[in-house]
Amino acid sequence: MGADVRRAALTAALAISAGLLAACSGSGPPANLISVSNGGCGGNWHLASPGWYTFQIYDASSEGGEVDLIDPADGAVYAEVNGLGPGTSSPMRLDVGSGSYAFRCFFDDYDPITGPTVVIGGHASGSSAIARSSMTVMSGCRRASSTMSRRAAAGISAPVGLWKLGIR
Predict the structure, then answer these.
(1) Residue 151 — very low, low, confident or very high, per pLDDT cuts 50/70/90?
(2) CATH H superfamily, domain 33-128
């Protein structure tokens, strides 16, 4: 009986050691980490199937930014992260259904960047997207807010920022 107990303990110890080695092997960033910057948006990401996912959006740039998960065909927005600071990350949680997805990044003083399109197979529904036409007003407000925040930090009054944006 003693040999069987030792054999079981040794087997368990080897299994735990193998698991720890695999966990510490540095095989790369977690699958849910989406790195964004003013030079690229989303990199090479993929999902095996539809379902609930939490992406960790990481801002690798030296500027703050905003990130949307969109339908690349029409620009409809499934989810967004606002106010992402340099070197920080923020969760983006949604029910990803079958279809095409891409990350779109907005950084101050840069044109929007759309990352690669990822296609999720199957016939599953997921979170609804907000149509691009509905987002136009919100996007204008988001940009105005960002501009006013930068101006306030620089000591310029908000009415000047509003006047330049055509809001009186």
Answers:
(1) very low
(2) Cupredoxins -  blue copper proteins (2.60.40.420)
